[in-house]
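Input:
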Amino acid sequence: MIKPRLKSSLQVILPWLLFLIIDLIKKPKQNIGDIFFLWYYLPGYVIWIAITIPVYKIFVWTGKFSIWKRVGFLVVFGVFTGTLKVLLTQSFYLGSGVFFGKIPASSSFFQFIGGTFYLAEATIISWVMLIIFYVIEISRKYQDQSLETSKLESALMQASLQTLKMQIRPHFLFNAHNAIATLMRSDKNEEALEMLLKLSDLLRTSLNTFDRQLIPLDQEIAFAKKYLDIEMVRFEDRLEVEFEVCKEEESLFVPVFILQPLIENGITHGVSKNLGLSKIKVCASTEDNNLVIKIFNTGSLATNGSSSGIGLSNVRSRMDTLFKGDASLILTEVESGVQASLTLPLLKTAKTNY
Amino acid sequence: MRTLIIDDEKKAREGLKILLADDPRVVLVGEAKDGREAIEKIESIKPDLIFLDIQMPGINGFDVLGSISEEDWPIVIFSTAYDQYALKAFEVQALDYLLKPFSKTRFKKSLTFAYETFNTTQKATLEVKLKGLLDSYQNDHKENELIQGDEETESRVIVKSNGKVHFLDIKNIYWIEGLDSYVKIHLSDRTHIVKSTLKSIESKYQIFTRIHKSHLVNMQKVQMLEPYFNGDFFLTLQNDVKVRGSRNFKKNLPETL
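Output:
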């Protein structure tokens, strides 16, 4: 296993070596063994290798500029780097040449620069180097993004598995089956069939939405209603449900499966602990450029299991991954019940800018 | 056997009724839709056999049994849709239980077993098993809760502590103290500490008046008001306990004081 430091210096040296080899192949007539030739030829590459890392650091530093400012800066910086390289190389030749007596001491430094050809060549090489850096940067960014995407995907996968677990949450599922069994025993076959269809519809929906992060609010509500339909059969006269959503809000996009876990939480902690009539109320509104969804349930915060619970923490972590700090979920105690307030950015399309 | 059905889901009760209907060994004497009703009906009707659902709102099947004195225990056929804890507990005590949904054959088997227990002296064995079940349940569930009641229970506060349900007549409650997510209910002779908030009690039971950030007082128990510094005050209750009130809540006091 190569250590990271060694690896990164190899990353710098190898491309230059490659460049050197290609360049040598282009010059077959030269005698590679000639000392003068090596003296003349190799130092340029050593200098290139030496300045690559500082140039890369400066390139990274320019990342904070806006795109056009950065391009402008890097074009000039390429010229500067090229000039610097030529200066360094020629200084070396001049110094060592005079030292070994190969070049007369009287030679002018500027005469030795070799005219504009070397300058132009070095500048172009610098530019190419910067372009390569840019390509590396883009591909790294893309890698990071796909990592982020796969993180989101796995969170969504977990959420849908969670939802699936809710439906297959044994207690829920077996009680639904028991209700169907009772309906059949009392010869209410139509009702039994209806409930069976609702149950399979719910299972199917949760399997279908697997691949999407965001769906319109009305679809999310339709899904929550299917879940509530079955809970209504179980709780019969004990549960009252109300939805309050305007047309404008219905088309806004929300994370998939965000609503049902919150409603389920309200039912397990509120409704199923309350002896009397319980209420679940869902309302959505636009406030300060945010979509605010409020889920009210009868009960008290003390029995609501505070703000923990797998369902709630999954909702929270998904909102964090999707919207960073721009979304929140707060549970508060209100008059005779608990209210979960979900604040999300306004999304008119299925795209986030995060 | 005089039989009582206890289940919070109406459909589940209906299902049991259908299965019981053609059996000459049983007479249905009632049904209960939650733990509170179950405790009351077991105590008043004294059935020979109960079908007891475990998962019910607030007061579950274990709590129901725990709240009935042992001599009143009927023969119990437990039923549950899925409750890992309960299933394990039943297995440990070798108690009979029905898993919902269940077949007619399985149901009849349980009923026959209950009938045999009823007609022989095996009831004592059942009682030992039930006691073992309750002991382990109460040992595992020590949390105290305040049960959200329905309209019928508005004159009572239902608290659950150590797997036993207490119905507190609100006329006997002097005052309630708030301690973070718990409240301490003060009666004349004892107190109950349960998981709840003053806010939820205040909104449900109008008889209690907020006189301090963490004090609710039953106004019918107030004997006298004593002013204190800065507009704060003390209320002396009929049991001579003094409860401090804050000036911020003075407006809640009735004019007569």
